[in-house]
Amino acid sequence: MSNNLLANKKGIIFGALDEKSIAWKIAERCVAEGAQITLTNAPVALRFGKIKELGEKLNATVIPADVTSQEDLDNLFTQSMDILGGKVDFVLHSIGMSLNVRKKRTYTNIKYDWMQKTFDISAISFHRMMQTMLKMDAINDWGSILALTYIAAQRTFPDYSEMAESKALLESFARSFGYHFGTLKKVRVNTVSQSPTMTTAGSGVKGFDEFFGYADKMSPLGNASADTCADYCVTLFSDYTKMVTMQNLYHDGGFSKMGMNPAVLDL
User: Fold this and answer.
1) What domains sit in the chain, N to C, each tagged with a CATH number?
2) Which residues of the chain fall below pLDDT 50?
């Protein structure tokens, strides 16, 4: 059911890969709520993912962009504004990649050039994206910027490796840039800390299936799904949350507030 929460709004969704992606669900929900969007991902993701199918389904132009390339980001926002007919109202950053995790290197045996690549793609890209938008005046006053994060930014999850530090940096950028964007343009910047979710990226983390079950039992409401995350993000893109900024918002069924739940003792 649509409530037209995003009627007449325009946005850009970074990071949709396939139907398991949270960004994919968010893109679908935004359009269902009346928004016009463009979609973007890295050129390699366009070759191996299904984002073109999503673009056809949602009547959304897909624009390749390497988030570590300033030229690509300039082109992305220029094209998006041309296609959408003006500045955007919301942007989703749903980008994360770690070669150390992918190559199964342990946290105590990390390759540092890979770690720097992780930070550049997964966190610094968020700052680069916002800096580009500000310089290009690409987002309307009272717009909304979101990035997806994870509780490993605050707590230790050994197999999450340096992605934990990357998410901590991402959340710091939201607070710091949120101040500047709010002061200059009344644009709000927040991060959403989602439950472990059965995505293509999540399933690549060692022990993910076991932890998914643990988190589901630990959380009073169970794990939040990608679909409910999409609903939540739509509210944060809407005009109902104009005064929410610089926050890390947990969307995790209560997991972040739990110390112990007797249910997990049955595992």
Assistant:
1) 10-256 (3.40.50.720)
2) none
